[in-house]
Amino acid sequence: MYGITNDGAALCIDCMRKEYKQIAYARKHNLRDGWRIDAVDINYEDTDLTCEHCNQSIESAYGE
Questions:
Q1: Which residue of 12, 36, 55, 61 is surrounded by the most CB atoms within 10 Å?
Q2: Per-residue pLDDT reduced to its tens digit, 23-59
């Protein structure tokens, strides 16, 4: 599972937890600063998906 920001970036669960205050502030004030999470999704098949913040690989559910 990962978050999708308003600018299309992917954030891993760890970064969403660590940066909760920035994400909540952006959501509360309807900011478009790259921290606002617009959706949460499951990575089913993309084995190359990485977090835009920490560059950690986001695990694929059905990939290799």
A1: 12
A2: 999 999 999 999 999 999 999 999 999 999 999 999 9
The token pair that represents 62 in the structure block: 């059905």
The model's pTM: 0.88
Neighbours of 36 (CB within 10 A): 20
- Give me the domain span that covers residue 42: 1-64
Query: How far apart (Å, rounded) are the C-alpha atoms in residues 54 and 64?
Result: 22
Measured CA to CA, the distance from residue 28 to residue 58 in angstroms comes to 26
Short-list 63, 64, 27, 23, CA closest to 13: 23
C-alpha span between 44 and 40 (Å, rounded): 13
Q: How confident is the model at residue 7 (pLDDT cuts 50, 70, 90)?
A: very high
Number of domains in the chain: 1
